[in-house]
Amino acid sequence: MGLLRQSAASLRIFGDKLQPAEISRMLKCEPTQARVKGEVIKYPSGRERTMTCRSCFLTADRTEPEDLDGQIKWLMAKMTDDLMVWQALTSSCDVDMFCGAFMQSTNDGLSLSPETMLALGSRGIKFDLDIYGPHDVSDGDD
Question: In the prediction, which pLDDT does 1 show?
Answer without folding.
Answer: 59
